[in-house]
Amino acid sequence: MSFQASPFMSLSYMHMSKIIRTLNYLEELLLGLTLLGLAIFVFIQVVLRYGFHFAFSWAQELGRYLTIFLTFLGASLGVKYGTHFSMEAMIKYLPSRTSHLVQAVANLLCGVFFILIIYFALVQIQKLHRYGARTATLHMPMYIPYIPIPVFSITIAIRFFHAAYSHTRQALGHEPGEC
User: Fold this and answer.
1) 82 lies in a domain?
2) Do residues 155 and 76 lie in contact, with contact meaning Cβ atoms separated by under 8 Å?
């Protein structure tokens, strides 16, 4: 007896797929707009500093926090596109099934690592909120620049777990092709 997916399951998968595509689009759009904004902001700051001997005191701090934001957002997209460093030399010479199992374990461990990052980032945010620390020049609560760390670590972990799941399915022969 073979398993047949119900129309409800197909419909729910289609909705989930559409939601994921929309989130991917928004994530890429946010990265592009933030990177463009940061580049324009730094350009204006350089022109003001060297052309007019004027600089905003808060510009360097804002640039630093935007860079942290971009780093974690970009890391999530790096996992999505598989652009992070990996030990490909070893995996290329393994049999296909073993290669997928090794990649599944590696992705699973990376996902667990980012779960730990989420936990410790939330602990740090709670401490900063409790102590009422503020940034030096922007005078905003210090926990705000830390928020992108757990937020984008969630997306990174989800992407690693999804890659582990895909590699596991391929190792077991349930899915043909690449992840």
Assistant:
1) yes
2) yes
Rounded Cα distance, 62 and 44, in Å: 13
The single residue listed with the structure tokens 């992705």 is 107
In the predicted structure, residue 12 carries a pLDDT above the cut 60: yes
The pLDDT assigned to 10 comes to 55
Could you give the CA distance from residue 33 to residue 29 in angstroms, rounded to a whole number? Answer: 6
| Total number of domains in the chain | 1
Domain-located, residue 177:
no
Residue entry with tokens 């790096």: 78
pTM for the complete prediction? 0.79
Residues near 143 by beta carbon (within 8 Å), at least 6 away in sequence: 125, 126, 128, 129, 133
Does 160 score more than 70 pLDDT? Answer: yes
Spatial separation of the C-alpha atoms in residues 165 and 171, rounded to whole Å: 10
